[in-house]
Design a protein that fits this description.
The complex is a heterodimer of chains A (about 170) and B (about 650). With about 170 residues, chain A is α/β, with parallel strands linked by helices. Chain A is about 35% helix and about 20% strand. Chain B contains 19 helices and ten strands. The termini of chain B are far apart. Classes of the chains: A alpha/beta (about 170), B alpha+beta (about 650). Chain B: Required for the biogenesis of c-type cytochromes. Possible subunit of a heme lyase.
């Protein structure tokens, strides 16, 4: 029996690496902010006639989309945001290092899902949110707690997941 | 045409490997029953096993040469060349580019394997005929698996139609002379171990485990171990200067993948000596050969499948990963099955006392195995944890804390081992022989405690034990006629001394390194260790495919002459990457290591400065360890040649 131990140990080792091969590990680094309240921030409106964005909660879940008119993946993401808006989701935008002129053109070309757009002229709000690039989207519940931080553009197949998460938060 | 010829050579080599396996499988029983079996047709067929192994090696080598040819000619109609090369690349990187990719590196693997098999067939004279045939059969089986891998899932000679105008180029980080030598060195090490594995399987098949078998296997283990030592040492220095992090070992999974076979090979090297000299440790030696090869297969698997996150970022590829995993299961599983079924019938070898040379070697083997276990568990733990839904990584704190004390204990045993007699010795006599090393340890310990208080415990013990080991490692030469001392004794002395030197460098680096991170203005001197470093200016530099900001630093020690250092922050355009090119000044007593970082926008630059006393000893020690291996190999070879000469005269 003793002599079979190495074979058993090897079989266990093989099982471990095989699992890793067929069930690739989740390499995403999860935000430490998930489950925490939104860090306090307030932004001025970017466009005349539309409010800016602040961290204060008003009892309804929303998406906070950190984006910019100069960002290409943000264009790829726009149709998904329009679908989310059509499904009744409130989307607040934080425009990083942007100008009203460029933003108006961006919205005219790619659609306008935003209920509010805040200007983050020097990237300070982005930093406060712990966001490292554009686009990033925060799912926030009615109490102002972060449900999830979505890094990168929202793909078509990810819309349903986001709707589900927000739906459960209501 | 060249690519097709290469593919044809590969198919032919695979066919010959199949033939070699078939002949060996049929023949080994007949020869075991009748050692001089030669008469019938099948006897002639049996005589073919050596030539077949040789031709198979030549064909694999031919395929590799042809692949290098298409790379050097930059034949863009070959997919692999188009994906990994570029017409503007310097010749050295066109050459090395042949193995700077998955398919090419696997072809290099089988080429070295085939050439090693041919070398066994040509040079092996002392092994019993049946065991040799079984060994060549095992070798053919390993080769066959890798030929199948190449031909069915990683064909390096696939054509691309239409051919592109130019290729995609090689990752700029890999355009370093290190690439030309680092992978082949490690591969020769891995494959050398596969030969040891084939010997072990051959000996299990014929139940012929004894001193003759150990003597035949030893040069292969030693040779593989030398290459692994060189590969690890060079890889460590490469990471040290190229990554710009100031560290020399990061416990990265791929680093561990090369360390684990080295640990197993080191243990095997020592146990095979017990088997060759004293006919002890039979089953254990066989087991170690299997473990060593499984570690090099697991190393290949970890590197090639990309299942672990590592600085060696290779793509995750389940198909290729599964193929290597299947080979691993067949070879190692098969060998362990054979081990379990057969080793009970291998006669027990000679026994020995606890206090004896063999006892020390067994302790060495056990401690090396413990370290191997720690490294293996630490490397695979993130995978196991992921299975339970936890995301974590295992880093230096675990490895240093867990392996450090065991390694120091191993050093203590290493100091005593060579001073013990074979079979039986007296503890009292050992203490007497160890008087000077023990004194050196105590003096060093006291010296560091008095003159450099506040060193952490592990580095302090490391420094003290390094002094003791240095004294103990040359002790076997005391009172001997130095001209009549065999070369392999010098080999052992120098290797052990190399460990002491390397240990001193590691301990000194962790005990005395001074580091500083400053935002420096031009003209403002910064202090690090005994040096005063001034930023004289920043200048832009343009390279062939990068641009850089280069800091002009001058470092001064006391009132001595200024040393110029030029660290760079490089930006590559395609693919977009930025790298830190450190600038290092090497002095007799250490290295000044400088890295330039980001500007703060207000005229200041981030500078990272390290003063690392005696850090170079780490790699100097590594080179000594390998040199000792070379001397030992040479010494054994000379002795065997003389012995054969005497036989021929008699």
């Amino acid at each position: 029996m003793r002599l079979w131990l190495p074979l058993l140990a090897f079989a266990a080792l093989l099982a471990v690496v095989a699992t890793a091969l067929y069930k690739p590990a989740d390499r995403a680094v999860h935000s430490a902010l998930v489950g925490q309240p939104l860090p306090a921030f307030r932004t001025e409106p970017l466009l005349a006639g539309r409010p800016g964005v602040a961290s204060a909660a008003d009892g309804k879940p929303r998406l906070i989309n950190v984006y910019a008119s100069w960002c290409l993946p943000c264009i790829a993401e726009a149709p998904q945001l329009m679908r989310l808006k059509a499904a009744g989701v409130r989307i607040d935008g934080i425009a990083v290092r942007d100008t009203p002129e460029a933003m108006r053109q961006f919205l005219a070309r790619n659609g306008d899902p935003y209920a509010a757009i805040g200007a983050d002229k020097d990237g300070a709000v982005q930093l406060a949110l712990g966001s490292s690039g554009v686009p990033e989207t925060f799912l926030v519940d009615g109490r102002g707690h972060i449900l999830d931080q979505h890094i990168g553009d929202i793909r078509a197949d990810e819309v349903d997941g986001i709707l589900k998460t927000l739906g459960q938060a209501r | 045409m060249i690519a097709e010829a290469g593919l044809a050579a590969l198919w032919l080599a695979a066919a010959l490997a199949l033939m070699q396996l078939a002949i060996a499988a049929i023949g080994v029983r007949r020869v075991m029953a009748e050692p001089d079996f030669q008469t019938e047709l099948s006897g002639h067929l049996l005589a073919a096993v050596r030539p077949v192994a040789i031709v198979q090696g030549v064909l694999a080598l031919l395929a590799m040469v042809l692949l290098i040819t298409v790379f050097v000619r930059t034949d863009m109609s070959v997919l692999l060349v188009a994906e990994n090369s570029h017409s503007e690349k310097p010749l050295l990187y066109k050459f090395a580019g042949a193995w700077g990719n998955h398919e090419g590196s696997m072809l290099l693997w089988v080429t070295i394997l085939g050439v090693a098999g041919a070398a066994v067939a040509i040079f092996e004279r002392s092994l019993a005929r049946a065991t040799l045939i079984a060994t060549l059969g095992a070798q053919a089986m390993i080769a066959l698996g890798f030929y199948a891998f190449l031909l069915f899932s990683s064909n390096p000679f696939t054509r691309l139609d239409p051919a592109p105008v130019d290729g995609q180029g090689l990752n700029p980080l890999l355009q370093d002379p290190g690439l030309a030598f680092h992978p082949p060195t490690l591969y020769i090490g891995y494959v050398g171990i596969s030969v040891a594995f084939s010997f072990a399987v051959g000996a299990l098949v014929t139940r012929d485990v004894g001193p003759a078998f150990a003597r035949a296997m030893r040069p292969w283990v030693l040779g593989a171990w030398i290459f692994l030592t060189l590969g690890i040492t060079a890889g460590s220095y490469w990471a040290y200067y190229e990554l710009g992090w100031g560290g020399w070992w990061f416990w990265d999974p791929v680093e561990n993948a090369s360390l684990m076979p080295w640990l197993a090979a080191t243990a095997l090297l020592h146990s095979v000596t017990v088997l060759a000299t004293r006919d002890g440790l039979r089953a254990w030696t066989i087991m170690l050969a299997v473990v060593a090869f499984s570690m090099s297969m697991i190393g290949t698997f970890l590197v090639r499948s990309g299942i672990l996150t590592s600085v060696h970022a290779f793509a995750v590829d389940p198909e290729r990963g599964s193929f290597i995993l299947a080979l691993l299961a067949i070879y190692i599983g098969g060998a362990l099955l054979l081990f379990a079924a057969r080793v009970g019938t291998v006669r027990a070898g000679n026994t020995f006392d606890l206090v004896s040379r063999e006892g020390a070697l067994v302790a060495n083997n056990l401690l090396l195995s413990v370290i191997l276990g720690i490294v293996l568990i630490g490397t695979l733990y993130p995978i196991i944890a992921a299975g339970f839904g936890t995301q974590l990584s295992v880093g230096p704190p675990f490895f240093n804390k867990a392996a450090g004390p065991v390694a120091l204990l191993l050093v203590a045993i290493m100091a005593a081992g060579p001073l013990l007699r074979w079979r039986r010795d007296e503890a009292k006599a050992l203490v007497a022989r160890m008087a000077i090393p023990i004194a050196a340890t105590v003096v060093a310990l006291a010296g560091f405690l008095i003159f450099a208080p506040g060193i952490d415990l592990l580095p302090l013990l490391g420094l003290a034990l390094a002094a003791g080991l240095a004294a103990a490692s040359v002790a076997p030469l005391w009172g001997r006629n130095l001209r009549r001392t065999p070369l392999f004794t010098y080999g052992m002395v120098i290797s052990h001394l190399g460990i002491a030197v390397s240990l001193a460098g590691m301990a000194s680096d962790s005990a005395f390194t001074q580091a500083t991170l400053v935002a420096a203005r031009v003209g403002e001197p910064q202090r690090v260790g005994p040096y005063s470093v001034t930023l004289d200016g920043i200048a832009p530099v343009i390279g062939p495919n990068w641009s850089a900001l280069e800091a002009h630093l001058s470092a001064r020690r006391g009132s001595g002459a200024a040393i110029q250092l030029r660290p760079q922050a490089r930006f590559f355009s395609n693919p977009v990457t930025s790298t830190s090119e450190s600038a290092i000044a090497t002095m007799l007593d250490g290295q000044l290591y400088t890295v330039i970082g980001q500007p703060d926008g207000a005229g200041r630059w981030q500078l990272r400065l390290w003063w690392k006393p005696f850090v170079t000893l780490i790699w100097a020690g590594g080179a000594l360890i390998a040199l000792g291996g070379v001397l030992s190999l040479l010494g054994r070879w000379l002795r065997e040649r003389r012995a054969r000469g005497r036989e021929a005269e008699a």
